[in-house]
Inverse folding.
């Protein structure tokens, strides 16, 4: 599964976190996502982390 950026609102602030779905045949819900890194309000940083993780796994 590919790493991607998920977003959510905490209060009125939009935050981002990198994660990937664990089981493709199940609906997307919190128990079906593996997260890495911290919550951030920096979407560009989250996208860069997702890209880095996907490139690393593709090279393995």
């Amino acid at each position: 599964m590919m790493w991607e950026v998920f977003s959510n609102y905490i209060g009125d602030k939009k935050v981002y976190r990198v994660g990937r779905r664990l089981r493709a045949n199940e609906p997307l819900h919190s128990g079906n996502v593996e997260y890495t890194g911290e919550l951030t309000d920096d979407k560009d940083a989250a996208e860069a982390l997702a890209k880095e993780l996907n490139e690393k796994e593709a090279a393995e």
Summary: The first strand starts at residue 4 and ends at 10. Residues 9 and 15 are 6 Å apart (CA to CA). The chain has a mean pLDDT of 96. The two ends are 14 Å apart (CA to CA).
